[in-house]
């Protein structure tokens, strides 16, 4: 569930069957006067559009029953609800939800047409805000992917520590110190502080220093974990590894920043 604000109106966006559905119940608050979703459904052009959409995307659409309903559009006595359309014609572009996020929702394709019924200006702004929401979601997905990559490389890193730096006679507590010590080699090389120093400087933040890293920092960290694993396997001392890794971190962060700056200039 997400929220977007369109011309001062807060609108809910839900994922239903991996598709984006937008709350018509929220959107209609932006229309002047006393209107309901059923008012929009009385319009023959609305039903024409819904019928075409369902024929294209819904193999279970009961178009015969839908055409019977549509033939009555325009009559003063004509009324049809979302629930009735769902039950009689198996439409999927409209959904009536109950509970915490209850209300009438429409697939984004239909919701944008509903926005035009509210006003052309509202349609333009809701598309703009929806696109902004999707861009933010993609950035979040990218960050999560880089975070997972860093976790995978962490296992490569710890495996090198296990086979090269941990004598078999150490206790589990002593082993944990070695792992933490090596993690701080990477922290110092990239962030300039140890995990403990970061926690002491940020007592109100949850998680650890890597949870607050940028995408570029996570990319660099992922590379450094692999490089440190190679250096450990080659028996390079910790002090020498720290110097090498710091130089690598500086160089890689500069490259990543240059790439990002070039993208922003396009």
Task: Summarize this entry quickly.
The protein has 11 helices and 5 strands, in the order βββαααααββαααααα. The protein has 266 residues and is α+β, with helices and mostly antiparallel strands.
Keywords:
about 10% strand, alpha+beta, 2 domains, 5 strands, single chain, about 270 residues, 11 helices
Describe the structure.
This protein is elongated. 23% of the residues are buried. A hairpin with a 5-residue loop joins β4 and β5. With 266 residues, it is an alpha+beta fold. The chain has a five-stranded antiparallel β-sheet. The protein has two domains: 117 residues, no CATH class; 131 residues, no CATH class. The chain contains eleven helices and five strands, in the order βββαααααββαααααα.
Rg, Cα atoms, Å: 28 Å
Q: Count the helices. How many?
A: 11
Distance between the termini: 33 Å
| Count of the domains | 2
Helix content, binned percent: 55-70%
Q: Going across the major beta sheet, what is the strand order?
A: 1-2-3-5-4
Order of helices and strands: EEEHHHHHEEHHHHHH
The global form is elongated
- Unreliable segments of 5+ consecutive residues: 165-170
Mean pLDDT equals: 82
